[in-house]
Specification:
This protein is α/β, with parallel strands linked by helices and about 230 residues long. It contains 7 helices and 10 strands. The strands form 2 sheets. The chain has a 6-stranded mixed beta sheet with strand order 6-7-8-3-9-10, sandwiched between helices. Strand 9 and strand 10 form a beta hairpin. Helix 3 packs parallel to helix 5. The longest helix is centred in the last third of the chain and has 16 residues. It is globular. The two termini are about 25 Å apart. The structure holds adenosine-5'-diphosphate (2 copies). The site of one adenosine-5'-diphosphate has 12 residues, from strand 1, strand 2 and helix 1. Keywords: ATP-binding, Nucleotide-binding, Transport. This is Putative ABC transport system ATP-binding protein. GO terms for molecular function: ATP binding; ATP hydrolysis activity; transmembrane transporter activity. Belongs to the ABC transporter superfamily.
């Protein structure tokens, strides 16, 4: 089924009397269980596109249907869609330093109408998936970068979102740790999670099954990653 359906999406930033076209005429459909990388140079429009996919920002043109829901709606409704449908993973983890690992992972569930015992169970389940169950009482500052990103992935997973949206998730990590994080994302994809990965690094993008290249605000290429389809 279609998780993301964008038609003619554009984004123009107004700066005083001038305008800047950051995205133009983006047509993009992503199905459930895909693993898509969006790659492009700095300034290509990746962050803008990610913000629209993640319902953090709205387009100035076109239509964006997310999991069957039209995202042209009030800000409150858009926040509700974002919180229930998207799991975010950022380069800098965005963990709350004063909260323990388990509390960080529980956070997205506190805004939902869920019993506290179930919140704890679901957070533990997400933490187990990323292999951190021995550290749940630690604070983020006591962890390595790779461990912090695992926490962030657990936090993204805990709401069972329709999409995991990862913005340069390995950007702050050494290459060995980065590979481990990518392997977690691949394993989650094998379990059926839909993953959209934003990066400027072709080595990272080449781990995805479909690679979309954007340049100057437009999709210039959208191809299956042949290394996954050799001999098929
Ligand atoms: P990328 O993530 O690929 O580097 P961005 O989406 O951040 O690209 O930016 C695309 C272009 O849009 C850049 O030229 C950037 O300066 C511009 N831009 C991004 N956000 C804004 C904004 N809020 N206001 C004005 N211009 C912006
Ligand atoms: P990235 O490193 O992912 O390309 P940027 O540093 O381009 O991100 O942008 C960081 C944030 O600042 C984004 O939310 C982007 O929309 C915003 N931004 C980027 N360029 C501009 C700009 N020229 N004016 C205002 N905001 C901008």
């Amino acid at each position: 089924s279609e998780v993301i359906k964008m038609t003619g999406i554009g984004k123009t930033y107004k700066m005083g009397s001038s305008e800047y076209v950051a995205l133009k005429n983006i047509d993009l459909t992503i199905h459930k269980s895909e693993f898509v990388a969006i790659i492009g140079p700095s300034g290509a429009g990746k962050t803008t596109l990610m913000n629209i996919i993640g319902c953090l920002d709205t387009p100035t043109q076109g239509e964006y249907i997310l999991d069957g829901i039209n995202t042209k709606c009030s800000d409150n409704k858009l926040a509700e869609i974002r919180n229930s449908k998207i799991g975010f993973i950022f380069q800098n983890y965005n963990l709350l330093p004063r909260l323990s690992i388990i509390e960080n992972v529980e956070l997205p569930l506190l805004y939902m109408n869920i019993a506290s015992r179930e919140i704890r169970e679901r957070a533990l389940e997400a933490i187990r998936k990323v292999g951190l169950e021995f550290h749940i009482k630690h604070k983020p500052t006591e962890l390595s970068g790779g461990q912090m990103q695992r926490v962030a992935i657990a936090r993204a997973l805990v709401t069972k979102p329709q999409i995991l949206l990862a913005d340069e998730p390995t950007g702050a990590l050494d290459s060995k740790t980065g590979k481990e994080i990518l392997q977690i994302l691949k394993d989650l994809n094998d379990e059926g999670n839909t993953i959209v990965l934003i990066t400027h690094d072709m080595n990272i993008a080449s781990e995805a099954k479909r690679i979309i290249t954007i340049k100057d605000g437009e999709i210039i290429s959208d191809v299956p990653n042949e290394k996954f389809y050799k001999g098929v």
